[in-house]
Structures are given as structure tokens and as C-alpha cells.
Amino acid sequence: MSERQPLVAVIGATATGKTALAISLAQQFGGEIINADSRQVYSGMDIGTAKPTAGERAAAVHHLIDIRRPDLPLSLGEWLPMAREAIAEISSRGRLPILCGGTGQYVWALLEGWRVPAVPPDMELRANLEKRAEASGASALWQELAAADPERAAQINPRNVRRVIRALELQRNARSARAETPPYRALTIGLASERAMLYEKIDARVDRMMADGLLDEARYLARCGFVLGQGPLSGVGYSQLGQFLDGELTLPEAVARIKTRTHALVRRQNTWFKSGDVRITWLDATGRLPTAEARARVHRFLGSTTPCGTIGPDLQDGIPAG
């Protein structure tokens, strides 16, 4: 156990303060952050994915952000070797790798040692699924996907049979992925928040995103030829603003939907990060970010003889507390 690479993971639902806490830990313990948010890997999708700002990236080194165009989906099988390579490279320099993100499948695939090969098309499976869709309706296939991978299902229109079938194809491969003992000794810190207060925080963050230019960002992506509502841009925020730009929703309706869909995202994330999961060290982030407690946990995890990096300021929502 002691020979395995130490790895700290900061996980939890959206808007719980993961980025701010990961940066604080990176400053305290000489760490670097590996992104485990499936949408922050795409360039140009900055405001809508709550991507770390330029100031936050200056405060700590981040990996696996802005590595793919918004029209080229990145699969779990592609992300995993990138994350493992980043962790090995960070560790080789005597730094502490800190995984940070809310995409549950990414987090557990890495921590549990999944081996997910590239998935070639399975024509027989596709034909069988197409027959099922014709017999039972497309929604039946989508419901199967939602039960297996609710986060992925939320990104796909239930009527898009082709994409639902491909997602089921990938999901079945992921379920059968060979798990190996990972080369990490991991401390997984989960940030929990009282649900009603978290929803209020999400709503305020959406308003902030709009004030910061989320609509302009969506317009820019559309002008670049990317289709809002498809592929990586089918997620919360861009899809609803695409409906506004197409005249299907008013702007207040689109903003209201972004808020309610983000609330739903929290519930889906909680299917991956359960309160009773003994693998997770849960800390209460309902009020102030639990920076001191997290630092103490990491210090005990690494051992009192482990040298620390520069001690930075406590961060609350990415802003030095004072």
C-alpha cells in the first residue's frame, strides 16, 4: 500500500466548491490538479462549464482542460490514459496529483482501475437495439441508458435513436471493463451541501454566468459552426440558450430551464457520489468551504513527514477569504 502513488480526489455535486478547495490543497501541499469534469475538457466552453478562471489556473497548475474541440466528443476510454499519464508525470516530479471534478464515471473509473478499450462498432448489437426501438419506442432505450448512466442520458435527446444506441454500446463496454488494482493510494474528499441552499447557490451562479457573458459565449460557438444542443454542447446551458437563439424559448425561459436542469444534474451526480459510500470522506460545504478540515485530512493521509508546498490563502468560491 505504501508504495502506491498518493492521490487526493476532490469530488461532489456542481457548485459545492470543488475547484476552490482543490486549489487551496494544491497550494498547501505542492500539488497539481487533474480535471475530472467531462465538459471542461472542451475548448471554448468556459463560462457555461464553470471552468477554472485564468486567475485560478495561475494559482495552481491544471491538467486536461481545453484538450478537445466542442464538436469532437471525448470518451471515457480516451480520457483514462490521459489522466493516468498526467498523474504519473506529476508524481515523477515529486508533486501531489489532485483529481477534481463531478463526473462520477470518470472519477470511479480512475480510482477503481477500470481498463476501458476503444469500442469499435458492434453491428449485431446495433441491429438488435434498433429492432427494440421499433417495437417498444425510442424512449424505452433511453430509459435503459438513463438507469445505467444518468449523466450521459441527460446529454442526449431521447428521440435521437442513433445516439442513444451508441451510448448504450459504450455503456455496455464500460460495464464489462476489466478492473485492476489501481496504482494509487487515494484519499477521496467529497463536498456535501444542504440541498435547498445548494439550489440557491446554483441559481445565483447561473445569474452570474449570464452577467459574465454566457449568452455571448453561446453565440460565438454557434458562429464558429458548432451546433448548440448536439454532442458536448447538448449539456446544461448551451442547449437551452440554443433554443433561445432558435426562437423556441424566451431568454427568461431559457435561464429558468438552465437552473432547473442544473438542479437535476445535482441529483444525477448524487447517484454516483452517495452519502453512505465508505470510500468517500464527506465534508460539509453548506456554509463556508471546509478548507482547514480538508487540509488536516490530507496532512494525516500523506504523513507528518511529507514536505508541504507553499501555504496559500484560504479560498471561498475562488476568492481569498478575509
From TrEMBL:
Name of the protein described by the UniProt record: tRNA dimethylallyltransferase
Keyword field: ATP-binding, Magnesium, Nucleotide-binding, Transferase, tRNA processing
Pfam family, one: IPPT
Top-level taxon of origin: Eukaryota
NCBIfam families per record: miaA (TIGR00174)
PANTHER family: TRNA DIMETHYLALLYLTRANSFERASE
Annotated catalysed reactions: adenosine(37) in tRNA + dimethylallyl diphosphate = N(6)-dimethylallyladenosine(37) in tRNA + diphosphate
Gene3D superfamilies recorded: 1.10.20.140, P-loop containing nucleotide triphosphate hydrolases (3.40.50.300)
Single GO MF annotation: ATP binding
